[in-house]
Amino acid sequence: MSSEQSAPGASPRAPRPGTQKSSGAVTKKGERAAKEKPATVLPPVGEEEPKSPEEYQCSGVLETDFAELCRRWGYTDFPKVVNRPRPHPPFVPSASLSEKATLDDPRLSGSCSLNSLESKYVFFQPTIQVELEQEDSKSVKEIYIRGWKVEERILGVFSKCLPPLTQLQAINLWKVGLTDKTLTTFIELLPLCSSTLRKVSLEGNPLPEQSYHKLMALDSTIAHLSLRNNNIDDRGAQLLGQALSTLHSCNRTLVSLNLGFNHIGDEGAGYIADGLRLNRSLLWLSLAHNRIQDKGALKLAEVLRAFELTHTEVVERRRLLLEKGTQERSRSPSSSRHGDSKTDREKSQMVGISNSALVDKTDKTQTMKTPKGLGKKKEKSWELAKKEEKSGSGQSPTQGTPKKEDATKAGKGKVTIPEQKPSRAKGIKIGSREKRSILLESELVVEATEVVNPLLEPVEHRDGKVFMPGNKVLLHLNLIRNRITEVGLEGFLATVQYQMQFSKAKSASKGPVGLLWLSLAKNCFAPQCPAYTIIQELMLPRDPIKAKLSEDEAMAFFP
C-alpha cells in the first residue's frame, strides 16, 4: 500500500519542474520582447533631428549653433569655436618662485613637457577663433579662420549661424583654400550678415580667375578690404581698378584697400591709377612689396595732382551737365513751363522801362545840371547791363563756374551752362546783387556736385584743355619695397609740392587736403637722395601722428 500510495503521490509532483520551465520560458520571452521594442522604436525618433538643419533656430551663440548645425549636416569631426589667444605680458619671476622651481625641478619638467606637447597638438587642430565684446558669448566681434580648407558645406553652415550675430564687424580668412566658386558663395553670404560687418580679409588665397573685384561691387558694403599675398598680377589689378571707378560707375563704400605682397607691375599700377581718377571714397591704399617701377609710379603720382581729362571724359562731363540741368528744370515745372513767357514779358517791361528812363534822363539833363562823370558812369553801367542781357554770361577761363542767366539757354544745346538753379531764378536780374547771387550759386553747386560725380567738380581750362584738380581724398599711400628709382621720385615730389600749394590756397575752406602719409622707403634709390629728402621734409608736418609726437617731445623738453 505504501508503494501504491507513493506512485500516485509522485505523479502530481512530476509536472512541477515542467511548469517552472514553461513559466521561465514565458518570462524570458517577455523580457526579450520588452528589450527589443524600444530598440525598434527609438532609432527613427533619434534620426529625425540630424536630417533637418534648416529647421534649426539659431540662438546667437556661435559655439553652440555651429556645433549643432555641423552635426545636423552630418559632420562627425568639425572645428571648434574658441576665443582668439592674446599675447601675454612679459613675466618676470621673483626670487621665491625661482627657489620653488629649483626644488620641484623634475616634476615641473615632466608636466611642462606634457603640456607643451598637448598645446602644440591643439594648435594645429582646425579652429574658429573669435573675439568677443565684453566677454559675452552672443557678442562676437571678429572671426578668424586660418590654415584649414573652408568647403562649400561649411559656408552653408555659416550662412545659417552668422546672420544672428548682430555685432559682427570683421571676417578674416587666411590660407583657407578658397576657389572662385567658394568665393562667389562667400560673397552671397555677406549681405545676409549684420550691417555692422565692414571688414573682410582674404589673404593667402590665390585664385585662377582672380575674381577678387567681386568683393568691390556697387552694392557691396565692405569698407576695409585686405587682399595680401594672393599672387595678384596686372590682370587682377585691372579688374580691381575698374571696380574702384569707371566712366559710368564708382565704388562709394570702400575706405581702405591693402594689395601688399602681390605681383603688380607698372601696367597694374596704371590700372589702379585709372581707378583713382574718379574715385572719391578710398582713403588708404597699400601697394607695398610689389613690382612697380618708375612708369607705374609716375602714373600714380599723376592722378594725385591736376591731370588732363581725356576726350571721352570731357564728353561724359558735358552729358552729365546737360542731364543735371534737365533734372533741375523738371523739379520746378512752373518755372520751366512759363519760363519763356515770363522772360518775354520781362524783356518787354525792361524795354519799356528803358525807353521811359531814357526820356526822363533827357528831360532831366535839360532841366537839371548833373556832373559829367556821374552821367558817364550811368551810361557805362547801362551799356554793360544791356550787353549781359543780350549775350549772357560765359564760363570762366580757369574753373568754368556756371552762370545763372543760362537757365533759358540750356535747352538750346549749350553745354557749359547746365549747372544752374532755374527754380530760384525768377527772371533776368541786373546789377551787383546778381553777381553776389551767382557766386553763392556756384559755391552751392560745387558742394553738391562733389558728392554726386567727380566729373562735375570745378575744372581749369588751359590751352584748350580741361584739367581736374586731381584726387585729394587719398590720405595714405604705401609703396615700400618696390622698384622705384629717382625718376619716379621726381613725380611724387611734384605731386607733394602741388598738394601743399593747393592746401594753402584752400586752408580756410573745408574739403580734402591730399596725402598725409607717403611711404617710399626701401626702393631702388639711396636714402640720401635729394628728392627723397625733400619729400620727407614736406610730409613731416602733414603727418598727424609724427606732428603729435614732435609736439609731445617739445612739451617734454620745454614744459
TrEMBL record:
Low complexity composition bias: residue spans: 1-18
Region (Disordered): 1-57, 324-427
One Pfam short name: LRR_6
Signal peptide positions (record): none
UniProt feature, compositional bias: Basic and acidic residues: 28-38, 324-348, 380-391
Polar residues: bias regions: 392-401
SMART domains: LRR_RI (SM00368)
Domain of life: Eukaryota
Cross-referenced InterPro entries: Leu-rich_rpt (IPR001611), LRR-containing_protein_71 (IPR053040), LRR_dom_sf (IPR032675)
Xref: PANTHER family: LEUCINE-RICH REPEAT-CONTAINING PROTEIN 71 (PTHR46984)
Name of the molecule in the record: Leucine rich repeat containing 71
Species for this entry: Gorilla gorilla gorilla (Western lowland gorilla)
This protein's encoding gene: LRRC71
